[in-house]
Amino acid sequence: MDLKNLLTFKTIIETGSFQGAARKLNYAQSTVTTQIQQLEQELHVKLFDKIGRKMVLTSAGSDLLPSVNQMLETYAAMKNYSNNAELKGELRIAVPESILTYQMQPILKEFHEKAPNVKLYLKTLNCFEIPYEVENGLVDLGIYYDVGENSDQITKSKLGVHAISVIESAQKEIESINFFNENKEFDVSFLSNDVDSIYQKHFEAMIKGRNITLKHRMEAGSIESIKRCVINNLGIAVFPNFVFEEELGKGLIRKVPSPLDSQEVETIYSYHGKRWMSPNLAYFIELLETRKGDF
User: Which keywords fit this entry according to its UniProt record (predicted)?
Assistant: First the structure.
């Protein structure tokens, strides 16, 4: 849930209109309308009725207002922690290799620079394992691809959405593999470092649904080693697009067209919503919120 939408909701109540909220928040009025529509769709309720020129809360909106106030107050407290508290102790984060390697470096650098006394423990895990770690207090924060795990103990927030693709070497003969076919066997190696990754599960579902088989499979220790193998025409692989942007730009690899091109994975962060939030966790979440555009 986007905190900006909650702030807009509260500002409409304070000003009495969408136009007043737009003026106070320095938004276009269309932005205010879109934010409230998003919030209503997410909550599955109507929040305002228009009476004359004034926007009035519906009964559902009135019921939700205390929770909105609490969330905004909590966020303000988090900002206060990050600005005023001495950050020390430790912070434990679980994250898949792909996100850690290709998306987390700038935020980790900023956190280390601004909280040098915090011991940061990074645990590289599969995204199906991370919700368990968060719920059971084994880590403070999970950053991973949403796999649909739901728990009333865990608070989740969206960071970004990413396309996934099959990749092959630029040296490979063009159109040697066509995943739009059905009932085929391809003489190619599929390279993977995590058979339980969400993007590999999407790939396996795709080829199973089209009755496609691959003659060979190889497992490697890291994403970087897999990319080197792909570049050298040792097989194909599947990853979120941000993983191979550099190699694609250099013309070392290319995408293999497939039904998977329409598939996306959503990156989220989660924490235990019923435990005390430490200043370290609060500050890291604040950094995540300010860097959502990087995910």
Answer: DNA-binding, Transcription, Transcription regulation
| Residue spans per domain, the chain | 3-64, 89-161+266-294, 162-265
Q: Does domain 3-64 have CATH number 1.10.10.60?
A: no
Plot region of 170 (φ>0 → left; ψ -120 to 50 → alpha; else → beta): alpha
108: helix, coil or strand? helix
> Any idea which residue has 């590289």 for tokens?
124
Ramachandran angles phi, psi of 154, nearest 5°: -105, 135
In whole angstroms, give the CA distance from residue 79 to residue 87: 13
pLDDT (tens digit per residue) in 121-130: 999 999 999 9
Q: Would you say the pTM of this structure is higher than 0.85?
A: no
Per-residue pLDDT tens digits for 35-69:
989 988 988 999 888 888 788 889 888 888 888 88
Write the CATH number of the domain with boundaries 89-161+266-294: 3.40.190.10
